[in-house]
Amino acid sequence: MFYKKIGVASLAIVLAAGNLLSQAPNKYAFPFSQVKLKNGLQVILSEDDSLPVVSVAVAYRVGSLHELPGKSGLAYLMENMMFSGSADVPPQQHFNNINRVGGKLNANTSEDVSIFYQTVPSNQLALVLWMESDRMRFLEITEDSLEATRKDLLDIMRQRRSVDPYLENQFSFDQLLYMDFPYSHPLLGSEDDLRTLTLDDVKNFYAAYYVPNNAVLCITGNFNKMKTMELVAKYFETIPRGKDSSFVPAAYKYVKKQVIKTEEDSLALAPAFYMGFRLPLFAPNDIYSLTILDYILMRGRSSRIMRRLLGLDNKIAYQLSGGIEKRRDRCAFKIFVVANNPYWINQCQNAVFSELDKLKTAFPSDAELIKAKNMFKRDYLDRIATTLDKAIFLCEQYFVLRNLDDLPLEFEKTMKVTNTDIVTVAHRYFTTDNSLILNVKTK
Amino acid sequence: MKKNRVILGFILLAVALSLAGQERFRKAPPPPEPRQELKLPSIETSPPLTNGLRVSVIFRDDLPMMILQLIIQGGESSSPERSAGTASFAAHVVTRSTQSRSASDIEEFIESIGGSLSVSTMEDFTLLTFRFLDDYLDQALELLGQMILKPDFSEKAVKSVKSILSLDYLGREKNPEFVAYRHLIRLLFKNHPYEKMGFPREAITNWNQKDLLEFFDRYYRPNNAHLILTGSIPMRMATQKVSRVLNTWQRAELSQKSFPPITPPQKEKICFIDVPLAKYCVIYLGTVFPSYDFDPSSLSVVSQVLGGTMNSRLFMNLRESKGYAYFAFSEAVFYKSGGLFFVRAKVAPEFIYPSVQEILKEIRKITREPIAISEIDQAKSYLIGNFPVAIEQLGVFSEKISEIMAYDRGNDYWNKYYEQILLVSPEKVFTAAQKCFLQPPLVVIAGDKSVLTDRLNEFESIDVYDSKGIRQYTINKEKQ
């Protein structure tokens, strides 16, 4: 009966929050409500009765950023270990239970967040909450499960390294761009570190970060709010609070100096280059201007750099990718280009610089700005298209903003970016002395 | 003192029991709530416009975007015999440029309205799918109007599409899955119009303006098309807007198509097709059946039991139990004139032979031994549960809508889905499995021949094809 009391108490807070937030200021917004349980677990609920489905995401603020030197790969290893069984859910049973009812599930780890998610028919909500609470409360971490997971990950690493061209260069470019170990090491970690991780390392990492006060539980879809809060209280409220995280991101020592390096890659079939710019976000609104600038330069087939390098009539590059990238408080612009033939590598590089320069010398037209914003809107809608998309989006935004009340404002601020803002940030960050280039030659 | 200790002991025991009682619910999975009713957006269809174009609206006000789909009742099977692939060719030329807009103009225009455009050419129909922000319906319709009424069939446009698709095919032909599936289609539908789905890259060089114009003239007609709008728009407004843009689209007399019956191969056959430098190998195994001979719901349950998910028989056997395969799944596909049931597996090269044997064993088992009721219930539970989960994704939703419309399955088709699956009985499943595999299946293995030669010698008899799909020779074990 204990949980029922908590459920009712929590519900009052949820309903209050719901009233505040359901007044959507634009048609791209959707209603949601929030409450924090006594153990620190943040709960977000968003109802949508279009279809009888419900999605549940549990996100922990932990990723490769939280790994210490010599212990890289722990977060990704933990993502896999979370499916290896908990006190009352045998190994692989999490997957089997979701599959049995026609649902789908997956997990994802980034530099800063590890997120576990599933979509099921709405009558199976309790099943998901039962399993998610069980692995938050008591994950079975054994020598056997660690060894099996370690073996799988080492196989994946070896396979990727043997077939993925430019992979090693990507790792070394990230070190150049992000400088500090927590931000720059690969998500999968290093083979040496993975081999030496101990059972205690894994247990300590789990105890430090996979705790309710470092997590968000988001439920979206077709559910009854009151019954759902009772279930949330029943399964999650008695999970003990963990120690508060002592993680402090490394202080950012911004260095503005052009660096040009060259490496060889035995798997590369054509010459390539990575180009990057550190973006220390000197002004608070720069991130919104850079977001739209990213669309003007790199998003869609008609964006400037895409068209210049991969145009229908003048394709000088074989492959082009990149754009604005955020790793918690660090932001960068990164481009990767594989030339169409060995003689065009310089032409590709000059074309990128030339497009960046153009942005500094002429305002983008109103039509181009509208196009960029419409593409941003389209992608934004894609990010909230399904109940699962919404659940993941809300978890991620909670960690970025810490106050989801600001979510509609974020969208509005991006829509308010002007032509002048674009030119201003282009001048501020896309300078030759702020550029970093890694040329990759074939062996 | 002793008495106090006893009391304290009782208290602690009571607390412990109470705590244990509170957490007892964690020991077993909670039972499900009753299943909620599935209410899907209704499909409203207007009487045909004066030129015969049918317009349907699926009213959805939950997303500020729209989906415009145009179905042309002419797919790859309608391509001329001498020029397989013309249906694909036509779809790409029509959507690439118009008489007033270049290809790059169209790219830019679509992105400027927050849109995306895709074309797919199926066996029986061609589908244009256009997604965009809901403020731009008029602009999207205007572009569609230009594509249909003023297409660009110039020499330059034709050459450009041929070159892009040829390059695209070149890339796809490095993928063993694409090569194996294409080969399976060619052999299973041999001498049937569906065979043209597996057209080779070399066919692209034969594509020409004359066939293109003839195909367009014959099939791109309003009385051979169906336009579907999904979004926040009432039917009346939709027909007005569509009519304003497409009322000059000329109808034409349509000739009735009749396809010969589909006949599955009469004996078991195993083929190998070379994919030089392929990094892995795949097994595709399939059979075909005529349209009057199957019950889609029962066959879906058969497929689910055999290889629908990672909990199905094939995956559990080939991957979890034997460790031969990376994956092994099955699928049933239904067309206007018949259907295809196929298995696909990605396997380690050293286990090709035992993998084929295990797949054949599983097929024999499912056609000879009745499936346990619990396994059928499990398959039905998955199919029913997964249906709303799948159609929540806009891409799957649009795909289902286009199939319902193109195959005239009726506007309330999907509201009957739960009911139809629930009505599937063990007897129906057994009959469907037996009917489906009345004839022995065809097996296609694709991979790098230089790596797999020794493995191919393990088969009793195997036909070896080159990378273009031309039969080279047969390996017979007894002759070695």
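qc> Chain B touches chain A through 52 residues (CB under 8 Å).
qc> done
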